[in-house]
Amino acid sequence: MSRDKLPRLFEGSIDELTKPSKPSKKKPDLKKEKMQKTLYVSRDMNVKLIQLYAEEGRRQSAIVEDAVNLYYYLRLALGEKKFGELLSAVKREDPDFLREYLLKLKL
Fold first, then answer.
1. How big is the chain by its Cα radius of gyration, in Å?
2. Does residue 9 surpass a pLDDT of 80?
3. What is the model's pTM?
């Protein structure tokens, strides 16, 4: 086979091969970038997720993202003390009590 028929793979120098690639100047869109998630939940929480998934017909990841956003913004809006009170009301797992508590907060 002649030299003209062999394909050339790289015509640059060794230095060009060993240089790190230039980082992208684009900022990643954190709302659209998919990341690997490992979420450990209790069996009770898993049952609640499955029930929400069945009722709303959405992906579990969308439900978890909504829950994280709700938690985050309620915590910012209410402050530590009021948010702690709200969480203790939620942990009672009584929808009627929570409804009354939220009416008192006027949310």
1. 26
2. no
3. 0.59
